[in-house]
Amino acid sequence: MARRFRGESHHKVDAKGRVSIPALFRRVIEASDPNWKEGLAPELVIVYGDHRRNYLECYTIEAIEEVDAKIDALPRGSKDRKILQRLFHGQSFPTTIDDTGRLVLPAKLRAKIGLENEAFFIAAGDTFQIWNPETYETEEAAETEEWLDEQPEDFDPLILLDGARGE
């Protein structure tokens, strides 16, 4: 099983679009890059997707290869395969982490999510997301809080892992 990203953090973005990747995230990226070894720049793929996506999804090499294999398993020429190829192959940016642990986000990607001086990183299992901190707070965090507020006082989210709501 692949290593998982855990945690969240805020990092400054400089005028050239350079941002430090959380150290714990870098270890997962390195471990999930079959070509990486000490002294080489670990690789990852940033999927920026369609107009509805307001964050950048960062895939390790192992995670994107898993997605690629599932796309490749679809019938050649099928509409689903063509659309998924566009979303995951066409609307993506392969990149590396430099020797100081930074990632360079191109202006196009920063503009797409409204990223300026600060980026918010949050783990998402075998991927992690980069958000404009204000967008994350107003959209994602607010949605999670609203959902939790709708649950009973004694609700334990772990119950969802068993597929039962315990009602």
TrEMBL record:
What the entry lists under Pfam families is as follows: MraZ (PF02381)
What are the SpoVT-AbrB domain coordinates in residue numbering? 8-63, 92-135
Has keyword Lipid metabolism? no
Q: Gene3D superfamilies attached here?
A: Transcriptional regulator MraZ domain
Q: Which UniProt keywords apply?
A: Cytoplasm, DNA-binding, Repeat, Transcription, Transcription regulation
| Classification via CDD domains | MraZ_C, MraZ_N
Specify the superkingdom: Bacteria
Q: Has the keyword Plastid been applied to this entry?
A: no
Please give the chief subcellular localization of this protein: cytoplasm
| Location in or out of the cell | Cytoplasm, Nucleoid
**What does the annotation say about its assembly with partners?**
Forms oligomers.
Please report which protein family the annotation says this sequence is part of: Belongs to the MraZ family.
What name appears for this protein in its UniProt entry? Transcriptional regulator MraZ
Q: Look up and give the organism this protein is from.
A: Roseovarius aquimarinus
Name the gene behind this protein: mraZ
